[in-house]
Specification:
The protein has 293 residues and is an alpha/beta fold. It has eleven helices and ten strands. The protein has a seven-stranded mixed β-sheet. A three-stranded mixed β-sheet has the order 1-5-4, with no helix packed on it.
Length: 293
């Protein structure tokens, strides 16, 4: 079910300190991709305590208008924006509503840099805007890819675009725009997607496509996500669910696992001479100063 809401603000300040962007922009709340590991389930509690995160998708009808107002303020400093950081900007309903496209048009108007990550090939509908934007100011685009196996991907992310189509999407974005284009290998799911061959396949893919980055993080299980994921794993991976529960019951083991994971990633990246390239925040700041003259 789709539900309309009226946004009071478009940009929300991100004070986590873990991201390169200071503000989040989310057009939708809720997500039809139905990913088993989704960390954003908590967000529906702010919407009349709606617990149906995957079936009730809220859209902010006036989001582009509010965004334009906020980016027009003299106090706005052209900070980097994380676009769709909680819920994917390319929900199926976006095909008709075009709200994310409207927001891209606003950011083009103001020449404001942003990061965007998606699991949908619908982003290619807006490649005309992405071409124009990336020729004028820095932007970064990521496809979320946690496995190269379409069958496994369908189990873990049943409502998302097939992995093979996401790979083709990344290829097209890299070849037809000037954006930094990469892969979000997030999350790495212990005992399910963390075998070294899968990790190597993804980094090798990024190298072969001449992509700019592969960002890696392990599965985080908090709040509603923890309970939901354990139920999912019990049904779909009964032979592994106890291993997962044991790991996530011990913070020391989680820390050790994460250190080892990033050691493996570093070894694979070194093997393929792959180095991440990111938006340079200083260049963005210099661009914003130039634009205000």
């Amino acid at each position: 079910m789709y539900k309309k809401i009226i946004a009071k603000v478009a940009l929300n300040k991100n004070d986590s300190g873990f991201t390169p962007y200071k503000y989040d922009l989310n057009v939708y709340r809720g997500c039809e991709h139905n990913c088993s590991y989704c960390y954003a389930m908590y967000s529906h509690k702010y919407l009349d305590d709606d617990k149906n995160f995957f079936n009730n998708v809220y859209f902010k009808e006036n989001i582009a208008e509010i965004l334009d107002f906020e980016l027009s303020k003299k106090s706005w400093k052209h900070d980097l924006i994380g676009f769709g950081t909680v819920c994917d900007s390319y929900q199926p309903i976006e095909k008709d509503l075009k709200l994310s496209r409207q927001c891209l048009q606003v950011m083009l108007k103001h020449k404001n840099s942003f990061y965007m990550s998606t699991k949908s090939d619908l982003i290619l509908r807006d490649i005309d805007l992405l071409k124009e934007m990336s020729s004028q100011f820095p932007i970064s685009l990521a496809l979320s890819i946690i496995t190269t196996d379409d069958i496994l991907g369908k189990i873990l992310e049943p409502g998302a675009t097939p992995i093979s189509k996401r790979i083709e999407t990344a290829k097209k974005l890299k070849s037809e725009t000037n954006a930094l284009v990469g892969i979000h290998l997030m999350p790495v799911i212990p005992f399910i997607t963390d075998d070294k061959q899968n990790l190597e396949n993804i980094i090798k893919l990024a190298k072969n496509l001449n992509l700019d980055f592969v960002v890696v993080d392990m599965l985080n299980l908090y709040g509603e996500t923890r309970k939901s994921f354990f139920e999912f794993a019990d049904e779909n991976f009964p032979e592994k669910v106890n291993l997962i529960k044991e790991l996530y019951s011990n913070s020391k083991k989680i820390k050790e696992y994460n250190i080892n994971l990033h050691k493996i990633i570093k070894e694979i990246k070194n093997k393929y001479n792959f180095h991440n390239k990111y938006l340079k925040l200083q260049e963005i700041k210099q661009l914003s100063i130039f634009d205000k003259r």
